[in-house]
């Protein structure tokens, strides 16, 4: 019964959202892929705001419910039954009354199960598609027959594009490049590959007054050069959303200087490589939003190369939804962790494989984040750099919160809403 009610609500929401789009005719940019969708969606929205009245998906509202919520301009009502009345009023107002509706929607879309994106595409058809990196072993693979099936679903919005419509893809993995050959879209690529339309090079940490505060890189776009700077987050992967945003700017004929100026307002979302001052004069890299093999590889590379660190501590939770690839991938990433950190703190049953792979590194095991949060603080010494990363349900943001030098910074972490805080 619950599943049936959910399906009915999703159908009605989708129908209303589809009518709203038909009435107002906004241009739609869809952001799909396995790694960095939310950061990319945010960066694209900032870049396009130089020319358009933009509405973007809130947080990671990328489902058959989240996308209609964004189109209707309403908040998630699931924990407040009375909020559905407000949604009905908002929908009626959009359908009946004149409204100053956005002329650009930037929609993040995601798939947990086969068919998820097909349902979203029945609600909205993209004018531009941005495909972030499609790794060899993507998240949610346990729900699909193969990694190829996941990549095919994540790429599927590109097949809905009109001929010669812009398709923006990462050039740093071959999967999207090969799939793009089967479309009639106009391909615009971005990445560190020299052949990319938006070519990023010389990515490095950004310092202010001798203190690491973000990332910087050079960017080459159709013969023009510029500098990309991301403040507040670290890792090569933090630069790539801005490169994707510049590719979107090309699609809408926004000049590089104008797009770079708009991107100065970009702020990385919570839990994606965010920097915080930690207790006992340490530095925290908060990557606690989620975890997958590709994203964790990048995070460990960032920890390994972080300047001025006296010790490097990797606090790593389970990577979930990997199905039959789970044991292999946890073991492989464990070997990387051993070569990237002086101390590995493994949180969760699957994460024990991280520890098993390390031979010359101190290892500490915890069953859950609550237990880890109580003990990890005692490990920290001055000059330590601490990476914290794990899948959503492992709730590693609890460990970040325990490590914060300033308790007020907890408001900047992921999953701080009352409903999340109540969960075990």
UniProtKB/TrEMBL annotation:
InterPro entries, per the entry: Mur-like_cat_sf, Mur_ligase_C, Mur_ligase_C_dom_sf, Mur_ligase_cen, MurCDEF_CellWall_CoF430Synth
Cited Pfam families: Mur_ligase_C, Mur_ligase_M
A GO molecular-function annotation: ATP binding
Coiled-coil blocks: none
Keywords: ATP-binding, Ligase, Nucleotide-binding
Residue intervals of the Mur ligase central domain: 31-248
Domain Mur ligase C-terminal: 272-391
PANTHER family linked to this entry: UDP-N-ACETYLMURAMOYL-TRIPEPTIDE--D-ALANYL-D-ALANINE LIGASE
This protein's name: UDP-N-acetylmuramoyl-tripeptide--D-alanyl-D-alanine ligase
Species in which this protein is naturally found: Candidatus Kaiserbacteria bacterium RIFCSPHIGHO2_01_FULL_53_31
């Amino acid at each position: 019964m619950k599943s049936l009610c959910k399906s009915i609500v999703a159908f009605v929401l989708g129908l209303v959202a589809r009518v709203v789009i038909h009435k107002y005719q906004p241009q739609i940019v869809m952001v799909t892929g396995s790694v960095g969708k939310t950061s990319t969606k945010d960066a694209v929205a900032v870049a396009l705001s130089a020319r358009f009245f933009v509405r973007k998906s809130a947080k990671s509202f990328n489902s058959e419910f989240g996308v209609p919520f964004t189109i209707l301009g309403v908040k998630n009502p699931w924990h407040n039954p009375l909020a559905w009345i407000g949604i009905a009023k908002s929908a009626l107002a959009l359908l009946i009354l004149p409204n100053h509706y956005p002329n650009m929607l930037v929609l993040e879309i995601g798939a947990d199960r086969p068919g998820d994106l097909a349902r979203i595409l029945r609600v909205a058809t993209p004018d531009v598609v941005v495909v972030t990196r499609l790794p060899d072993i993507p998240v949610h693979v346990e729900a699909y027959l193969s990694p190829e099936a996941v990549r095919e679903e994540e790429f599927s919005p590109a097949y809905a594009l009109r001929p010669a419509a812009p398709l923006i893809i990462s050039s740093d993995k071959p999967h999207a490049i090969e799939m793009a050959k089967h479309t009639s879209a106009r391909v615009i690529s971005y990445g560190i590959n020299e052949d990319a339309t938006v070519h990023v090079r010389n990515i490095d940490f950004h310092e202010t007054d001798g203190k690491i505060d973000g990332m910087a890189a050079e960017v080459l776009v159709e013969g023009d050069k510029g500098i990309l700077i991301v403040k507040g987050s670290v890792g090569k992967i933090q630069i790539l959303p801005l490169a994707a945003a510049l590719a979107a700017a090309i699609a809408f004929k926004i000049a590089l200087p104008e797009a770079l100026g708009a991107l100065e307002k970009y702020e990385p979302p919570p839990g994606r490589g965010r920097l915080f001052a930690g207790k006992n004069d340490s530095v925290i890299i908060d990557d606690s939003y989620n975890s997958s093999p590709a994203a964790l590889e990048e995070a460990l590379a960032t920890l390994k190369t972080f300047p001025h660190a006296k010790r490097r501590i990797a606090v790593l939770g389970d990577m979930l939804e990997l199905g039959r690839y789970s044991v292999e991938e946890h073991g492989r990433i464990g070997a990387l962790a051993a070569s990237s950190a002086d101390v590995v703190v493994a949180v969760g049953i699957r994460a024990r494989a991280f520890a098993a792979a390390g031979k010359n590194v101190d290892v500490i095991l915890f069953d859950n984040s609550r237990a880890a949060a109580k003990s990890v603080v005692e490990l920290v010494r001055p000059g330590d750099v601490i990476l914290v990363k794990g899948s959503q349900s492992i709730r590693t943001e609890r460990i970040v919160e325990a490590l914060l030098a300033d308790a007020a910074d907890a408001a900047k972490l992921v999953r701080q809403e009352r409903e999340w805080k109540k969960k075990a």
